[in-house]
Amino acid sequence: MRSPRTDAGRLLVVLVLASAVTVFTATVPLLRDWFDLRVYYGTVDSWMHHGGRIYDYQVPGTTYGFTYPPFAAVVMLPMAVLGLHTAVAVALLLNLLALAAALRMLTGRAWRRHGWYGCALAVCALALFEPLRDTFSFGQVNVLLLALVLADGWLLATGRGRWAGLGIGLAAAVKLTPALFIGLLLVARRWRAAAVATAVAAAATALAAQVDPDASRFYWTEALWDTTRVGRLDYISNQSLQGILARLGVLDRAVWATLVLAVLAVWVLRSRRAVAAGDWQAAFALTGLTACLVSPITWVHHLVWLLPSFVVLVRSGHPRIAGALYAVLCSSVVWLWFDDSSGVDGFVGGNTYAWITLGLLLWLPVGQSRGARDPFARRATTSAPAQRPAAPGTAQVRSQPGRSAAATGRATGTVVGTADGLAVEAADGSAVEPACGTAVEPACGVGRGASSDPTGSTRSAAANPQSSSSRASSYTAKPPPP
Question: Do β-strands 431-432 and 415-417 pair in parallel, antiparallel, or remain unpaired?
Answer without folding.
Answer: unpaired
